[in-house]
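Thread: "does anyone have the structure for this chain?"

Original post by V.I.:
We have the sequence but no experimental structure in hand. Need at least a predicted one for the grant figures.
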Amino acid sequence: MKNTHGKTAVQLQDHAGIQCSLFYGKPLSIVDAEHTRKALFSDGEFVGYRIINGKREHAFLFRTNQRNGAQQVPGVSPAVTLMVDAKSGYRSYKLQEMLHMIVCHEIEITAIPDHFLLRFNTLLEGRNCSSQAMQNMIEKWCT
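Reply from O.Q.:
Generated one for you, tokens below.
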């Protein structure tokens, strides 16, 4: 998938057993492309993106970064700065729960330090990703 006019393009689709959708972020626009649609984002935007293939779910939280993006995310062009990689339905749910908690605390995601999101990714991979553990992280690192 090629970049569209200097923006980060995120593929959206809902057919043939594959669903690609946004759960966080507001695109500049959504354009129709051949067999799919693309959400276009400017530089520096946080994007929550989910891919469901059959019963498998994979979610990502990344920042668009055209100059320094290093990680490739399926359906996204060009490379981005990946913050959270949720590799299951449960982890995807917990990522969305964390984003909801941040919104409820009235914290702007751009004010959150990158190391907080990277620590959250580590918490997500562990066994104790409880709501209380996430709340404690927010209180320690974001307030």
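V.I.: this helps a lot. The helical segments are 89-104, 114-125, 131-141.
O.Q.: and Residues 98 and 134 are 7 Å apart (CA to CA).
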